[in-house]
Write a structure and sequence with these properties.
The complex is a heterodimer of chains A (382) and B (170).
Chain A (H helix, E strand, L loop, with lengths): L1 H8 L1 H9 L2 E3 L7 H21 L9 H10 L4 H28 L8 H21 L6 H12 L8 H9 L6 H33 L9 H4 L10 H5 L5 E3 H26 L24 H9 L6 H22 L11 H23 L19
Antiparallel strand pairs in A: 1-2
Chain B lengths: L2 H5 L9 H25 L1 H4 L7 E6 L9 E7 L9 E9 L5 E5 L10 E3 L4 E4 L4 E3 L5 E3 L9 E6 L2 E8 L6
Antiparallel strand pairs in B: 1-10, 2-3, 3-4, 5-6, 6-7, 7-8, 9-10
Classes of the chains: A mainly alpha (382), B alpha+beta (170).
Chain lengths: 382, 170
């Protein structure tokens, strides 16, 4: 039976090759962030499909169908709360995985393509985080959709056209919900799955690059010119162990703990439902999702405060180009974080900035920003 | 030099007619697949503009100058079949007595604004933009005044349309 499957598909040999994949012998718990991100994505897909049985993407029914999932569908509250918490877990684990790869300089030759696919996964996942919030059509998600699409208007020359394509009309409404729904449940998940497959294929091809102490060749510096040193060239660790069973059980442990945490969070803190979106109501003060708060606060601190909406694009594009070109700008073979202080300090600075800006934005005192309690202004005349 | 060797050296080889034809057919097939997709994506740009509708808002005959009055009106936003969206509008009479209808939409990033009677300003809580009573941007990031909507007054009752005045009315 196994012979037949192997002869007709070759899949058993492929699995064996994957299980025997050499993994650096040290630093192994640092390698679980990637597989945990994948597990979080699997939870997203499973709970997302489960919600699609009940969710209705129309402005009239979206919110009530979400209430139906939360209140009436058996375990519906658990499904949606798991989706909510594993979305947060996925972006956090992705950031941890990104940090690990950055500090161990794993993006360098010959792994540039793995890094590029990872950067694309970072941006597509961020877009998933943004578009998913809009689908329940609650007041919080509605206003993030309004602000997110309005940013397109600031793109030079084609801004109004992009805004019409993003919203499907003159303002956020039914056409916008249809477009966000399509992107969130079909286009981006498909794209992310393809990117993950290519990312993993190249990880198997090139192997994981581990902690710098595993690399005696690197620690001793580049070989004299003209001498061949394949281990150095390919960044192979001094000591490898097969993926199965030692690393496999670490990945499995991390994923299991992640699932236990997600269930715990989902049971203790259910995904919020807010009130139904009402564009004409003043009862809700629009605010950004936590993931985008640091960036919003960063733009607020920029000197060109009045140009912030236009500047939004500049910094996103700079971040994208900067991340894509990182392995081509930083081609030095050094992998020791202490011997590449510029990159290490850059990484630590970015992490510190993200955390500080997030804390500032979350902790801000509404009074100093002149946020007037809702309802003190002018309400409609009956 | 046999044929197999020539195949391995593409730089020294001339591009054959068959290769050009295959590439052209492949490209054309890709384009044909893309047409419906791109067409749906940019449909909002190709569609004729939504017809102007007038929606009853409420009485404005007793409105004193420079005092905004808020109304909730369902305005069409997308295609002809899409349900209208409730928007808030402010009716304000200028010192000259002319009525303007301001769309409650901060021109920075589209949030709703709130009228602060004590300060006599519209305030946007998203990024702290301010507009004066006639909708002109006075502080913060908004790049332009609030949009003005085409409207009619019949027997003291205001009817608001979904159409913006040319260049937003200012």
């Amino acid at each position: 039976m196994a012979d037949w499957v192997q002869s007709r598909t070759g899949v058993i040999g492929l699995i064996n090759k994957f299980l025997q994949e050499p993994v650096p012998a040290r630093g192994r718990w640092f390698y679980v962030f990637g597989s945990s991100t994948l597990t979080a994505f699997a939870v997203q897909v499973a709970t997302g499909i489960a919600m699609l049985f009940f969710y209705r993407p129309t402005v009239g029914e979206a919110y009530s169908s979400v209430l139906y999932i939360m209140n009436d569908v058996p375990l519906g509250w658990l499904i949606r709360s798991l989706h909510y918490w594993s979305a947060t877990a996925m972006v956090l684990l992705l950031l941890l995985h990104l940090s690990r790869v950055f500090f161990s300089a794993a993006y360098k030759y010959p792994r540039e393509a793995i890094w590029i696919l990872g950067v694309l996964l970072f941006f597509t996942t961020s877009l998933q985080f943004a578009t998913g919030n809009f689908l329940p059509f609650h007041e919080f998600g509605y206003w993030t959709g309004v602000v997110g699409t309005y940013m397109f208007k600031y793109v030079p020359f084609v801004g109004d056209g992009l805004y019409a394509v993003a919203t499907g009309g003159d303002y956020v409404g039914q056409a916008t919900l249809a477009r966000f729904f399509l992107v969130h449940v079909l286009v981006l998940p498909g794209l992310i799955a393809l990117l993950i497959a290519a990312h993993l294929f190249l990880v198997v091809k090139h192997g994981i690059l581990g902690w710098w102490v595993n690399y005696r060749a690197f620690r001793q510096g580049p070989p004299p010119p003209g001498t061949e040193n394949e281990r150095f060239e390919h960044g192979s660790a001094d000591e490898d162990v097969p993926f199965w069973p030692r690393q496999a059980i670490r990945d499995a442990t991390a994923s299991f703990l992640l699932l236990v945490s997600l269930f715990g969070l989902a049971i203790l803190f259910r995904a919020p439902v807010f009130n139904e979106a009402d564009p004409a109501s003043l009862d809700f003060i629009p605010r950004a999702q936590w993931y985008f708060m640091p960036y919003q606060r960063f733009l607020d601190f920029m000197p060109g405060f009045y140009l912030t909406a236009a500047a939004t694009w500049v910094f996103v594009i700079l971040l994208f180009i900067g991340m894509l070109s990182l392995p081509f700008l930083d081609k030095d073979v050094e992998r020791n974080p202490f011997r590449r202080p510029a990159m290490t300090v850059l990484g630590l600075t970015l992490i510190a900035m993200f955390l500080m800006l997030l804390v500032i934005e979350v902790m801000q005192d509404p009074a100093i920003y002149d946020i007037i309690p809702p309802g003190t202004g002018l309400t409609e005349t009956p | 030099v046999d044929n197999a060797q020539a195949e391995r050296q593409p730089s020294s080889r001339r591009i054959s007619r068959r290769e050009v034809l295959t590439a052209a057919l492949g490209g054309a097939t890709g384009l044909l697949v893309g047409i419906p997709l791109i067409g749906a994506l940019i449909a909002p740009l190709l569609r004729p503009t939504v017809e102007r509708v007038l929606v009853e808002a409420g009485r404005v005959d007793d409105l004193p100058p420079l005092e905004p009055r808020a109304f909730r009106v369902p305005l069409p936003v997308g295609g002809p079949d899409d349900p209208p969206v409730d928007r808030q509008v402010f009716a304000v009479r200028g010192v000259d007595g002319n009525l303007v209808v301001l769309l409650n939409e901060c021109t920075h990033l589209g949030c709703r604004v709130e009228w602060l009677p004590a300060r006599r300003l519209y305030y946007c809580p998203c990024h702290r933009g301010y507009f004066n009573v006639m909708g002109y941007d006075v502080n913060g990031p908004p790049p332009r005044p609030m949009y003005r909507l085409v409207h009619q007054v019949q027997n003291g009752v205001l009817f608001v349309s979904n159409e913006r005045e040319p260049d937003g009315g200012v």
